[in-house]
Write a structure and sequence with these properties.
With about 50 residues, the protein is α+β, with helices and mostly antiparallel strands. The protein has one domain. About 30% of the residues lie in helices and about 15% in strands. The chain has a two-stranded antiparallel ribbon. A hairpin with a 4-residue loop joins strand 1 and strand 2. The longest helix has 8 residues. It starts with 5 loop residues before the first strand and ends in a 9-residue tail after the last helix.
């Protein structure tokens, strides 16, 4: 993982302090059809 400020860590999840450096990774994740299907039934594309 990149050098982000770690807030909390569990066996499967790492919570990091929000940063603009995360925007591209976040958009990739929420725009993935498999992930988007789990988040909402109203599918849409999020942009910067």
């Amino acid at each position: 993982m990149k050098n982000f400020e770690l807030i909390f860590e569990s066996e499967n999840i790492q919570y990091v302090k929000l940063s603009e450096d995360l925007i591209n990774e976040y958009l990739t994740m929420v725009n993935d059809p498999e992930v988007a299907n789990k988040i909402s039934h109203n599918m849409r594309t999020f942009t910067y």
